[in-house]
Amino acid sequence: MARTNTAAAAYDDDALPSATDHPPVNAASNAEPFPKPDHKAKKHGRPTRKTRRGEHLGAGHFVFRRNANGRVMPGGFPFEHPSAELALDEAARLHVEFGGKFEVYSRVEAVGAEVA
Fold first, then answer.
1. Which H, E and C letters describe the chain, residue by residue?
2. What is the pLDDT of residues 26-76, one digit of tens each?
3. Are β-strands 101-106 and 72-73 bridged in parallel, bridged antiparallel, or unpaired?
4. Distance CA 103, CA 82 (A)
5. Tens digit of pLDDT for each residue in 75-104?
6. How far, in Å, CA of 103 to CA of 61, rounded?
7. Whole-angstrom Cα distance, residue 94 to residue 100?
8. What's the rounded Cα separation, in Å, for the pair 33 and 29?
């Protein structure tokens, strides 16, 4: 049977994919799993265990900010100051620069393995 060349029948129905040829668009599939993320490709790589300039690991003096609710707000990677005096100086500098309340916390005692 010959088709007429109309706008509705301008293509062959056999060339079109049927509904069973492809899975639904919203179907989940693990045929191509996501690659594992590469930590080196991120802006900030994995945290380093090296000491930063002026830091003394094991000294036990930290500066933290206390927010308006009264909670201590530690940073993600707190700096360990070599002495309580240097930590107090840093708290004063941060108060002048950013405002707010900064407090110095010092380690009282440690139990367990030695800190480097």
1. CCCCCCCCCCCCHHHCCCCCCCCCCCCCCCCCCCCCCCHHHCCCCCCCCCCCCCCCCCCCEEEEEECCCCCEECCCCCCCECCHHHHHHHHHHHHHHHCCEEEEEECCCCCCCCCC
2. 656 666 666 666 655 556 656 666 778 888 888 889 999 998 888 998 778
3. unpaired
4. 16
5. 788 889 999 999 999 999 999 999 999 999
6. 10
7. 8
8. 8
Dig out the tokens for 51 from the structure. Answer: 């000491």
User: Which two three-digit tokens encode residue 42?
Assistant: 């991120």
Among all chains, which residue has been given the structure tokens 């010092």? 106
How high is the pLDDT of residue 115? 55
Residue pointed to by tokens 């107090």: 88
Where residue 69 falls (left for φ over 0; alpha for ψ -120 to 50; beta otherwise) is alpha
Structure tokens at 17: 């994919």
User: Domain coordinates of the chain in residue numbers?
Assistant: 58-106
Please state the separation of Cα 53 from the chain's center in Å: 24
Instruction: Look up the pTM and report it.
Output: 0.52
